[in-house]
Amino acid sequence: MIHPPDRPSALGAGGDNAIAYAIGTVADEWTLLILRHSVRDGTMRPADWQRLLPISNAVLLSRLRHLSDVGVLVPVGDRPGRREFRLSPRGVGLWPFLLCVWAWELTWAGGARPDLTEMRHLGCGAVFRPVLVCRTCGVQVEPREVDAEFGPSGSWPRSTPTATSRRRSSGSTSLGGGFFPETRAVVGNRWSAIMLGAAYLGARRFPDFQRRLGVPATVVADRLRTFSELGVLAPSGDPDRATQSSYHLTDKGRALFPAVITALEWGQRWFVAPEGPAMVLDHGGHRFEAVLVCSACDEALAGRSIETVPAR
């Protein structure tokens, strides 16, 4: 299905909702890397991506085809082996999510990754981190301050991508600088991403995750083990006995909230179900809409107002 890339796509009633489309688009480790270079560096040719990433031609073409199908990339030209792409407005709209992913890696995994670059806000000239604030009241928002519940098109079955033709990624964490190693482990596949969302919505015990998501027990156990090893979730019991432990989000896990929210808002902006939104967010009695501001000057951020600088 080819979606017009310059306006929201109307989804069919009862099928995958905006959450599923968001997860199906960004919750893949190779797609994260392709988008990183597209949004930040302007990479637009398959040859350039292959030069920058240790990716096979078949996997690259599969991801580019998927990004084209959902209207994130627009093919330019049709010469065999010479096709180029450009970001659609829908693709450009992913920059807040990618910025939050980058900031999370810098803050929580940068100590072990000195090759990651910092970000500078051109508006004030300072090295900064994006801060999530409420557009209505202008205050910084923490996860516990936002009430979230499924909307008219929201449910666990509809929020998990139902199918994918993409190959399983390698899962390697040693791909070099700027490759988001911990982020790929946490949101680099659809099951990890939907389980992280379940944790934000109150899932704490093994049966909670399995009942809500309807996934095999081995998948739940593997993801809980990974999240515990990375320090995103903390088990109350023996982490080797995942089915008998309770889990809670750590500070590191809660720090992923801006990435989760910006991905959700992107999905709900560009993929609209006839029944209504998939998720309804409330902050202090009013609808929550996110905006990212500079931690140094409090000015709202825009993609073109950010540059990379070597980490100090």
Task: Chart the SSEs and their pairings.
Layout: E1 9-10, H1 18-26, H2 29-41, H3 46-52, H4 57-69, E2 73-76, E3 84-87, H5 89-92, H6 95-108, E4 118-121, E5 130-134, E6 147-150, H7 156-159, H8 181-187, H9 190-200, H10 206-213, H11 217-230, E7 233-235, E8 247-249, H12 251-254, H13 257-270, E9 271-272, E10 279-283, E11 286-287, E12 290-294, E13 306-309
Helix pairs in contact: 1-13, 6-13
Question: How would you describe the overall organization of this protein?
Answer:
The chain has 13 helices and 13 strands. By secondary structure, it is an alpha+beta fold. It has one domain. The strands form six sheets. Strands 6-10-11 form a three-stranded antiparallel β-sheet, with no helix packed on it. Strands 1-9 form a two-stranded parallel sheet. Helix 1 packs across helix 13 and helix 6 runs antiparallel to helix 13. About 3% of the residues have low confidence. This is Transcriptional regulator, HxlR family.
In short:
Helix content is 39%, strand content 15%.
Provide tags for this entry:
312 residues, alpha+beta, three-stranded antiparallel beta sheet, two-stranded parallel ribbon, globular, Transcriptional regulator, HxlR family, WH_DNA-bd_sf, transcription, HTH_HxlR
Widest sheet, order of strands = 6-10-11
Low-confidence stretches: 165-174
The tally of helices reads 13
Number of domains: 1
How does the major sheet shape up?
3 strands, antiparallel
How many strand segments?
Answer: 13
Principal-axis shape equals globular
Q: In sequence order, what are the helices and strands, one letter per element?
A: EHHHHEEHHEEEHHHHHEEHHEEEEE
